[in-house]
Design brief:
Layout: H1 8-23, H2 30-43, H3 51-55, H4 66-80, H5 88-100, H6 105-121, H7 128-146
């Protein structure tokens, strides 16, 4: 949703972080791989993720602005909450990444709530109040980016 706002180097770094989240539960499911492929296509990345970077320590150094950190955190939380079953290891990994980015727990909770609410609307035809609600969520995300 917001990944196009990142520079290409940040998109590639995000993909590394997203891959960390995807494998954090110890499973390499087809659904997770499909989600990574969708992210790659959305960001215009054609090459595979460097697994050495995925397995290394958390590196958020390319997210050098508040806005880029919020975008990465929101999108990682959307990924973690994308399916009906959220594995504790995925949430723990996202929280570790958010912690490394310097977000206080209140921010992580707020962004997690945003991701949960936004994901319930994703891919559904929306009209009236629900369409307005989606727009309000997008506006709220932009406010978080600008804070």
């Amino acid at each position: 949703m917001f990944l196009e706002m990142l520079k290409m180097s940040q998109r590639e770094a995000f993909l590394v972080l997203a891959s960390r989240v995807a494998i954090s539960d110890g499973e390499d499911s087809a659904e997770e791989q499909a989600a990574i492929e969708v992210l790659k296509a959305e960001m215009g990345i054609t090459r595979d993720v460097d697994m050495k970077k995925v397995l290394a320590g958390i590196d958020v150094s390319l997210f050098d602005t508040h806005k880029s950190r919020v975008i990465a955190a929101l999108e990682l939380l959307r990924l973690a909450y994308a399916d009906e079953y959220v594995h504790e290891a995925e949430i723990a990994e996202v929280r570790a990444i958010c912690n490394t980015m310097g977000f206080p727990e209140e921010w992580v909770s707020t962004m997690g709530e945003w991701a949960t609410r936004f994901n319930t609307l994703e891919g559904k035809p929306l009209e009236g109040e629900m369409a307005e609600y989606r727009e309000a969520l997008i506006e709220h995300a932009h406010q978080m980016m600008d804070t």
